[in-house]
Amino acid sequence: MTQTHTSTDISAWLIDRILFYGKAATDEVTVDTPFTELGLDSIYALTLCGDIEDFYDLSVEPTILSEYPTIRELADGLTSRLADA
Amino acid sequence: MTDEPSTLIDMLRAAASRVGDTRGIRFYESPKTSEFVGYDELDGRSRRIATALAQRGLAPGDSVVLALHPGLEFIEAVYGALYAGLSVVPAPVGGIAVSDVATEQVTNIVRASGSRAVLTHEAVTDLLSAEAGSTALADAAGVPVATISDLFAQGDADSWKAPVLNADSMAGMLFTSGSTGNPKGVIMTHGSLLACSSLCQGLLDMTTDSVFVGWAPLHHAMGLIVQAFLPVYAAADAVLTSTAQFQRRPVFWLQLMSRHHATISVAGNFAFDLCTQFATDEQISELDLSSLTALMTGSEPVRTDTVRRFVERFAPSGVRESMIMPAMGMTEAMLISAKSLGTDLVIVNADSSLLEGGTLREGSGAQTTEMVSCGPAAPLCNIVIIDPEQDTPVALAENQVGEIWITSPGASPGYWQNPEATAEVFGWKVPGDDRDYVRTGDLGALVDGELFVTGRLKDLIIIRGRNLYPQDLEASARLAHAAVGIGAAFELTGHPSDVGIVLEIDDAQLTEAGIDLVSLTTEVRAALISRYSLPSLAVAFIGEGTLPRTPSGKVKRSLTRSKLDNGELSIVHADGFAPLLQATDGAG
Predict the structure, then answer these.
(1) What CATH number belongs to B461-587?
(2) HSE (CB half, 13 Å, CA atoms) of B238?
(3) Is the ipTM of this complex over 0.85?
(4) Quick one: B347-407+432-456 is in which CATH superfamily?
(5) Residues A43, B278: C-beta atoms closer than 8 Å
(6) Which residue of B has its CA nearest to A18?
(7) Are B573 and B556 in contact (CB under 8 A)?
(8) Would you call A50 and B508 a contact, using CB atoms and an 8 Å cutoff?
(9) B492-520 confidence digits (pLDDT tens)
(10) Do A46 and B247 touch (CB under 8 A)?
């Protein structure tokens, strides 16, 4: 993928995926809500990794959710990983 | 017709001789990368690994622990060890990214099995101590550690000599997870594994043109048998990936089945739900699942709503209800029952109060529980339902709920070095029958020869002679209020109430509803007491996601109960329990 992704783009995409999983209500999901409060158990954490891999072609582990505990931080983290890739 | 193999070595060599490399096992490490090993090639690699193992002083009768991630090397390690006459003891390191946990698992299993070595590979050793992975593992486990690549480099396929084995020779041990106390090693012999493969082949009508697709863990019975042994037995293709790959992208499972024209696959009920949830219409339009003859659903209770939603969602891809094959098994007995190939599901709307009294019969009133059959007994097996209340075995009639006992040529002879536990489960006799039966610890009933599983014997709540199933109480509690989530219900001893329930709470829903936990307790209690005619009920609330669970997300009831009594649960509110528990209520 050659298009550049801004942190805002990635945040929006992450919100979209998390809402799709159906474990959190729309108004509960903000860029600063910790992942631990968004109902993502170990299965969904892996599914999110799979989605990130498929969409951004970036290899990630579920530990990334503790390393970057909110959507905003994860989006920033993924942006810099993409820039390095 | 070729002779039946008497060992697993003969089984692979027969497949190699019959189909060469035109059939084999393909493993997908990622959606885009896979590697294939033909059965002739696998035979060659196994001979090579076996000679290297023998050079290191390992001899027939020794056991070796397999500490490998899922993949072709795992399977090569299995057959390589078997070709040396060794018994394989898989350790659950697959998917564990934390080094301490992996090392501990391996060490525990080495000790419990008395294994003389550990077979591993770089994927695992790289995760361990940064200095010297293998050394760290060897120091911890106390036995030599060998990597598959080293064994491969040192071995010589042409100098291999078949070890002297027979059907009773031990082929492996599977340690069932014991949350506390000593894990039990279920013994597998060459004979029991061959018998299991044979009856599965019969059930599934497998030929060399069958194609098996799966992602079940190779270190557990179901994954090991249907993915590493059964395809070889049938000299058919297997296309596999890891459980982690499935969890990352559930739809990939369906795509693999479509791409490789799968005829057989297997997964637990939760996997079907994940696929129904995650597959997009676009993905579905690209799937062709019409080649499937058996989509087995096993390893956890089968839910009719899950099956219906899945069949409906994937009907455009060619999925039909007759493909879905509910099955029931356990490590100690292997396959116990399965729906016959190509038949419709058998569903009973069981009368709820009759069920509480221990009878499973179709009801017409408002209170019914929909149940799906796990099919008749597997080929060559026999099921009897035994009254759990009696001291000597008494077989119950059809429609009567009791403990499920099974006799099977695929059953294990017992637990490794654990005569007491073995005597509790294995070698039981039924009057008028000289076969050995395994006590499954599961409750169920036979109806027209079809097995319906109702629950676990040890989880059953018995109040005033009535059998209450915890999953029913938990479901009712959930329906009582939107703020109530998953829970665990069980009998209590030493508490004011005989029944207790611990429920996870959705804080957001609680706030939105504007009620507090005291009011919620009243609501939940009222709902359950009236629905189940309980004399009283102890209720505790806990944070979302904090109840102990299995890898597939099911709550562990016994563990919850013992943690509760040990004060190890972070209860936010409790009412009706003994004083020790109530003391944590202050912060609630």
Answers:
(1) 3.30.300.30
(2) 28
(3) no
(4) Luciferase; Domain 3 (2.30.38.10)
(5) no
(6) B278
(7) no
(8) no
(9) 988 889 999 999 998 888 888 899 999 99
(10) yes
